[in-house]
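Before the break, one more example. Copy the sequence into your notebook; we will annotate it together after we see the structure.
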Amino acid sequence: MNRLLKPIIIAVAVVYFLADAIFATIAHPLARWLGDARVLARLRGWIRSLRPYPSLALFVVPLVILEPVKPVAAYLAATGQVRMGLMVLIVGEILKLVLVERLFTINREKLLSIPAFAWGYGKYRLAKDWLESTEAWQIVRRWSAIARISFRSYVAELKASFRLPMTR
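Here is what the structure looks like once it is written out:
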């Protein structure tokens, strides 16, 4: 039974980490922007004032609330509501990653001072490092960079074509 379940569990884990990694490309810049927002300075101060275990409880809230987004999105897609499922998945995942990223950044030392959290984070980093070291991941990263450069070039050309020629 263990030999039968192990490949399935590994496949599910790879898909899970891959989805998070894809959404992280959007979430990280958004989280940095949110971190620089002056409006949220008092909230950041309150979060920083928390002790380790209340920080952990606050960190877990977006995970508990937003992690079920993936199965809900899959259900919506399976019942023929593909667009709605995709929207739920995108918004929920980006929101979850932004909140988790910010909370982790603010309270990193406190969270890592909790032995069980530090152990789980270490395992997460190992899995993420392994995924990022695979040849498939490197190919996707190259394609992503090429697509990003092509898009920026296209936007620059589009802007240039709308500029009026200067007359003297």
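The chain has a mean pLDDT of 84. The radius of gyration is 20 Å. Try to locate both features in your own notes.
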